[in-house]
Amino acid sequence: MRAVTIHGPKDIRVEHVPDAAIREPGDVVVRVTHACICGSDLWAYRGVVERQPGQRIGHEFLGVVEEVGAEVSRLRRGDRVVAPFVWSDGTCERCAAGLHTSCRQVGSWGQPGADGGQGEAVRVPFAEATLVRLPADVDEAQLPALLTLSDVLCTGHHGALAAGVAPGGSVAVVGDGAVGLCAVMAAARLGAERIVLLGHHRDRTRLAERFGATEVRLGPGAEVVAELRELTRGEGFHSVVEAVGTVESMRTAIGVTADGGTVGFVGVPHGGEQALDIRQMFYRNVAVRGGIAPARAYIPELLPDVLSGALDPAPIFDATIGLDEAADGYADMDARRTLKAMIRL
Amino acid sequence: MRAVTIHGPKDIRVEHVPDAAIREPGDVVVRVTHACICGSDLWAYRGVVERQPGQRIGHEFLGVVEEVGAEVSRLRRGDRVVAPFVWSDGTCERCAAGLHTSCRQVGSWGQPGADGGQGEAVRVPFAEATLVRLPADVDEAQLPALLTLSDVLCTGHHGALAAGVAPGGSVAVVGDGAVGLCAVMAAARLGAERIVLLGHHRDRTRLAERFGATEVRLGPGAEVVAELRELTRGEGFHSVVEAVGTVESMRTAIGVTADGGTVGFVGVPHGGEQALDIRQMFYRNVAVRGGIAPARAYIPELLPDVLSGALDPAPIFDATIGLDEAADGYADMDARRTLKAMIRL
């Protein structure tokens, strides 16, 4: 089969790799119909995080069950499924607590030895626990929206929950990438009345407005902190979602948080510990919580809203490419010519 | 009047200073009967944080109202009162939200231009909002316990609340200073079933057991992290109170926190931002919240339990000295010969 591989910074290839195959009786093989490129894949693309040369990549996918292991009874060939961005056993105490990303047997697509989401097929361990089946009669047109359940919509939701977004509340979202935009949508769903998005790109902030942002601001961190605080008469926001992962974005997030407020952080941290100003957290009682989103825990809750059309994050995909165009897809996202590329197979 | 002043590292003096006096119509003057030395005063004593030469010091006190300003009607000469460790106006939105430490007009005892708690008398701004009156018939023997409402008991309570301590829960407390010991007591009051204190001094951990710790462990951070995790079959604690403020103690606190758990931090941070391992926070969903405790918000809740004897933190005072012995009191605490010194006036 063919799959996307990464050989070094800016070296994305599509290669022939061994076919995805059942190894354990709890496995299934999913034929991928929709995958996408994540902002976090770009850290590997840029060489900020290392990958083994030739390692698979991609962790968001949706497809059709093609083969099932001997112990799999709740999934059948032909089922349409969406995969959260890590697999989990569904039986340990952490899965039971809804923290599937800390599962005792967690693993992620594209890690050495595992298939990546950007490829023709994926072997899925702990398949019954990991995959979520979509309705048999699902409208094909909804599949891009449903693909976001794999990561970005759930991650945005996690950020909003971690930030303590509540009905009638005010929230600032730092970052206009796909996760930031999904956090806007999640905050609106949770009933936030005022949602301010801080971004860099006018076309993305326009999308944020479609998704529920009541105000948008553009600009680099330091100056915008004062501007955002002014919006709240100096008070700051009680809920802030950090959806980038850089030192600057975290500093901005803490800077615009009200005393006693909470930063829900979901941007994969890059840039080190100096992002967290512990003295400011202490003297202003600013909490920082969040992290990698247990998407598997959220898919059942968010799925009905995507199916009903109440949530439609599909517009985050501003490019649709074939598998062979993966390298261009990465280059375009890296150069910010596109927000997020969907790969159709 | 006489008051304690600090002139530089390890240079504590008792000097004649201008009498505390009414300046604003909302002020009162409190004649101090009980004060104490705080672990956080030692940061100034050690020269880690700077003070102006001759600056006052001390922020915990209890006493008797001696003089009232023209606009003060709810406090009278002769009232016995306890002061939280900062003053606050009681009218701004932050005070209304219970975050008095972020009051728009906040200030702290001993700041330049203000009387310190370690002195014969203190001018108290916003006196009606700041001070809490004790019952007229309060037993003198209870005054040491009531003095802890000024800071350490409320700070321990804040840490336990921030860590999300709940009935039946498990909590680890990092630090066997007065705040850590009070956090143990507060956690027990909140219904925690398992309370593990991590300390350095056997005599202090014995006190922790009196205060409600179910287990104690001694030792430096790195080794003890593994030991504490073993106590929970590797899981870690869902609630952890950080009650020291050093890089090592925060690392220990995060290290013993379960995935998805929360560090409630109340140790005044010293040592910089590298204390917060953002990658560990991210990949394990460990939250960090807390900060400077809004003691004024907690005194009304904790006061009845101190008066009833349900909470008796008085044993944290293992030395009682006169004002003239302040320098020795600091030296003894600095050398860990005493846990916490009470100053009787």
Would you give an account of this structure?
Two copies of one chain form a homodimer. The first copy, chain A, is 29% helix and 26% strand. Chain A has twelve helices and 18 strands. Chain A is α/β, with parallel strands linked by helices and 345 residues long. Chain A folds into two domains: 2-150 and 294-344, Medium-chain alcohol dehydrogenases, catalytic domain (Quinone Oxidoreductase, Chain A, domain 1); 152-290, Rossmann fold (3-Layer(aba) Sandwich). The mean pLDDT of chain A is 96. The longest helix of chain A has 14 residues, at 295-308. The first copy, chain A, has helices spanning 41-45, 93-96, 127-130, 143-147, 152-162, 178-189, 202-211, 221-231, 247-255, 278-283, 295-308, 326-334, and strands at residues 2-8, 11-16, 28-36, 55-56, 61-68, 80-83, 86-87, 107-108, 121-124, 132-133, 170-174, 194-199, 215-218, 237-242, 257-265, 287-290, 319-322, 341-344. Chains A and B meet through strand 15, helix 10 and strand 16 of A and strand 15, helix 10 and strand 16 of B.
Shape of chain A: globular
| Low confidence ranges of chain A | none
Order of helices and strands of chain A: EEEHEEEEHEEHEHHEHEHEHEHEHEHEHE
Largest sheet of chain A: 7 strands, mixed
Q: What's the CATH superfamily of the largest domain in chain A, by name?
A: Medium-chain alcohol dehydrogenases, catalytic domain
Portion of residues in beta strands of chain A equals 25-35%
| CATH class placement of the largest domain in chain A | Alpha Beta
The name of the CATH topology of the largest domain in chain A is Quinone Oxidoreductase, Chain A, domain 1
